[in-house]
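Page 47, continued from p. 46.
Same chain as before, 203 aa.
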Amino acid sequence: MHLFIYGLILGWGAAIPIGPINLEMMRRNIQFGTLNGISIGLGACSADLTYVFLLCVGALTLLDYPAVLNTIGILGAIILCWFGYKAFVMPVHRDSANAKRASFFKSLSKGYLLTLINPFTILFWLSVSAQLLIVAKGTQLDVVLAAFGVMLGTLSWVLSFNSVLHVTRHKLSTKMIHLLNRTGGIILFLFAGYSILHVVKGF
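Result:
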């Protein structure tokens, strides 16, 4: 049971800090509706589970090689810059027709990709991987139990965060939504810059 609790806290630790995915959840929820915000979050949950799976099979050790980590860092920076640009140019609409045009699966894949290549997500899982294996004592069943806790932790945050946004989003003015879009874009650019800086320092 303690492994499940450990995984639950780990899931909250991965999901709650303000970063690209929470900003995207906020923007998409306000712009396209609650379901779209949830789909972004579910994509992020899937990415975290991917890292747990890679941890279980030992594939995270590949990130110990600078060439692999630097390649991921460069690709991640490019993708983050693209999402940042889209945040700046995205027009503000809050009508039902616009919500229908926002594909659930497209948002799901965006949330997955944005979380998977986020440098802070990579560093987070690299930093906790050793501790998780130690706590799980190397047995696959214990790792799976901890992984279930991670999944529940990230999912509970996604649903809670989007529920709050569902109640409050109608109170935001168009000007405030524009500000949120631009703030989100700037933060995505900063994350991209951090990723590039991390690569440069590796040379």
